[in-house]
Design a protein that fits this description.
single chain; about 170 residues; Glutaredoxin; seven-stranded mixed β-sheet; 5 helices; globular; disordered N terminus; binds copper (II) ion
Length: about 170
């Protein structure tokens, strides 16, 4: 018991140190980079449990899950045979549909959206229903194929189906 307490104390202390590093990281030296990365994953763990719905045969969905986990998200992997019902349930516009559908907090993430965009969404909290990468562009996270990158847009969408560009990638 004592042992556990002291362990969690150490954890709290390292979080505090990590926080200090983050606060002062505008002038981060190369030696600070590793510590800064730890901060990102510690922060992410606090807010970023995501649920991914995918069909059992989708391998690129699994690749995207690996991308999300590497970025510090905790993934609940939900396998279903009926992805169109999921997309309908979560209000993904037909024009933006892709393979897997992810739910994080009140937002829906459709397809191969980069984790950095998910993070930005969670930070900025815009008044939208979610963001999506329609189709499966080559070079998007989970769709890597050598060095090829097909430029793609991450779109935002609202409950009433309005879409707009959220970010561009090339
Ligand atoms: Cu896919």
């Amino acid at each position: 018991m004592r042992h556990q307490v002291s362990k969690s104390k150490i954890f709290v202390v390292s979080l505090a140190i990590a926080g200090l590093v983050l606060a002062g990281c505008s002038a981060a030296k190369e030696t600070d980079l590793a510590a800064t990365e730890n901060v990102s994953s510690a922060q992410a763990a606090l807010v970023s449990e995501i649920t991914v719905f995918r069909s059992p045969t989708c391998s690129c969905c699994g690749q995207w899950i690996a991308h999300a986990e590497a970025a510090g998200f905790q993934v609940k992997d939900e396998i279903t045979e009926d992805m169109s019902a999921i997309k309908q349930q979560y209000g993904v516009p037909d024009s933006l549909s892709s393979c897997h559908t992810t739910v994080v907090g009140d937002y829906v993430i459709e397809g191969h959206v980069p984790a950095a965009d998910v993070r930005r969404l969670l930070t900025e909290k815009p008044d939208i229903a979610g963001i999506a990468v329609p189709g499966m562009p080559v070079g998007s996270p989970g769709m890597e194929s050598g060095d090829s990158v097909e430029p793609y847009t991450v779109f935002s969408f609202t409950e009433s189906g309005e879409t707009a560009a959220f970010s561009e990638h090339s």
